[in-house]
Amino acid sequence: MIWFSGVVIVLAVAITSALFYRDISKSDTSQDLQPSLSSSRKTTAVNVEIIKPRLGGIQRVCVQPGTLEPFESADLYAKVSGFLAEQSVDIGSQVKKGQLLARISVPEFETQLQRCKADVTHAVARIQQSEAHLTAVKAEARAAKAMILLAEAQLKSKSAYRKFREKQLSRYRELMNQQAIDAKVVDEEEDHYESAVSAEIAAKETVNSSKLQAEAAEARIAQTQADLEESKATKLIAEADVAKAQVMLDYTRITSPYDGVITRRLFYPGAFIRSAESSSEKIPIVSVERTDLFRTIIQVPDRDVPYVSPGNEARIEIDALPGRVITGKIARLADSEDTATRTMRVEVDIPNPDGKLRRGMYGRTTLILNQGVHKSLTIPSAALLGKAENGKAKVRTVKEGRIHLTDIKIGVDNGVDVEVLSGLSIEDAVVIKSNGTLEEGTTVTASNVESKKDSH
Q: Beta strands of 249-323 (E only): which ranges?
């Protein structure tokens, strides 16, 4: 028993010693490794990719689909009903302004025009007749005035002669009272006196008659002048009727309003054409489009509307004409948004000298709304930390191998690049990509993206 107890004591001491030695060894090893791990953490650098800001701002552009429309187009309808007597064009025909395209036969319009022209001729003859009559009555009036002067002269002569006979009779009566002459002589003088009185009275009547004739001549002049004015008015009415008849006849002629091409033809010669006013179904005879000038229709979204103005540069790429870029400028804009789509209509005029453009062609239109700030810088949008607010943002820059958070002021951001107005210089190294977490002061190993591109 004493031997067994001694063995147990020895084993217990040995086990205790072994455990104590292991704990001491672990403690020493942990103390030896701790500085090494701490040193490793402090010396390991994060790999980052950097880029230098580019000099110059960002153009604000609006890229939208656009459709080509002719600068002018028209459906030409019939104003009057009748048979299509003539049609000199067909689909695809090139036409000139004023060229006759079709003619509708309406014989009654031609007859009406001839009748109205005859009325004008008749009115002209009436005017000439009235003018001749006026000349005649004016001559009569002048003759009547001359007759008045002659009658008044004769009256004056007759009055003088009557006074002479009156005095002569008075002397003869005195002589008869003195019994110097016979009564028979006095009777003869009385006859001469009465004859002179009668002649004077007749002369007065002649004067009155001449004056009445002159008044009648003046009345005939007034009447003839009224007839002349009526004839002239009749002529004006007849000429207006001619103009109206000519207009109605012109309605039978369908002419081109401008140089262009025929795009639709819906009738053939011999067909009965109903006027657009009398038919509930309005069908044009032909359609014509101007082809030397087109307009591109673009619907600009609400966010770009404030920056659109006439004269902005436009670049148009037509899907049917790959590789061709057509340049132009905004010619006109609606100045009002469509409340249903929140877009504004903008038009760009495009010349078509080679005739390659067609109505309905589709493509992409790039509107240059802003040329950007010349003295600003440009960096990739991916370099921004978080979301910009009120034109302010943050980026990470590398200086002396360490990260620095830098405040910047930004302008246009098109989703690919962002315009930097202040906060950076062209020599700053801006982080755009990293393989670890970056904080203020983090040690990094930087590689220039542009240098990599150049090496490739």
A: 253-255, 260-265, 272-273, 286-289, 293-301, 313-318
SS3 17: helix
As given in the structure block, the two tokens for residue 402 are 């360490």
- Amino acid symbol at 318: I
d(CA 299, CA 305): 10
Residue (of 60, 217, 79) closest to 136 by Cα position: 217
Torsion sign over Cα 148, 154, 159, 160: positive
The rounded distance, in Å, linking the Cα atoms of 15 and 195 is: 201
CA atoms of 334 and 342, how far apart (whole Å): 13
Domain segments of the chain as ranges: 47-56+375-455, 60-100+253-370, 109-250
pLDDT tens per residue, range 95-109: 999 999 999 999 999
SS3 state of residue 82: strand
Domain 47-56+375-455 has CATH 3.40.50.2300: no
Q: What is the mean pLDDT of the chain?
A: 85
Q: Yes or no: is domain 109-250 CATH 1.10.10? A: no
Pick the CATH number of 60-100+253-370 from 3.20.20.370, 2.40.30.170, 3.40.50.970, 3.10.450.50: 2.40.30.170
Reported as a single tens digit per residue, the pLDDT across 335-358 is 999 999 999 999 999 999 998 999
424 vs 407: CA distance, rounded Å: 9
